[in-house]
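INTERNAL AUDIT FORM
Audit reference: QA-55
Scope: verify that the stored structure record matches its stored sequence.
Auditor: D.O.
Record contents follow.
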Amino acid sequence: MHGSRDPRPRQAIDRLADRLRDRLADSLDSSTPNLAKNDRRPYIETAQLELHPLPLSEQICQFADRAIARGYRRIQLIPLFLLEGVHVREDIPEQVKKARALVGDRLAIEMTPAIGSRLDSMYHLLAAKIDRFASRQWILLSHGSRREGGNRQVEELGKKLGVFTAYWSVSPTLEETIAQLRDLPEGSRSDRGAREIAIFPYFLFVGGMTEAIADLIGELSLKFSDLQFHLADPLGDSDSLAQIIFELMATCAA
């Protein structure tokens, strides 16, 4: 995960890791029924790219040492990121490269694609939330990346969902997108009423960022007083998100 000074994302990632352990344990139950109970609990830990006392490379090395002691010869690193931005394309691979150099041939360190690459799975997860309030015009609000192509997956997801996209850190911003929606001619609007706008924060967990989004929406509700706004919850540490991660792990391990 990225890392945060807010304790809530840390707590959420721990709960998500527990869900994933349970999901993997269930898989072992069905595929290896004779395995001892003590061996059914998969070995999963979490790490942070930023705001951790140790750099990610050292966190990986420490995990690798513990994995080797448990008899493992391969580990998977799963980036819990929704964008193919600088962190996923540059920062994390650099840290993995350093960790591999330190670990050597004692253990293989594999890096999967980021979970945001699972567009079909993310589509089904978000569509289930959006369809519950289909009368509203939805905006998919992502953090955004300045890296070329970093927002491509969000744009593809928004197009597939039939919703507008906006970004926290780059253009089009939420305010720009709301203004665009309000100014659309009546005949060119979607079936969802543009006077009732719902914002889905395409972020993993509740935290400082989602609070900042809520504050911004409060300000925008004063500026666009003719519109009604609804803020949905982020993805959260749900069974559905754990399933997406499980599918990613299984695909990359095959």
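Auditor finding: record pair retrieved intact. The two ends are 24 Å apart (CA to CA).
Action required: none
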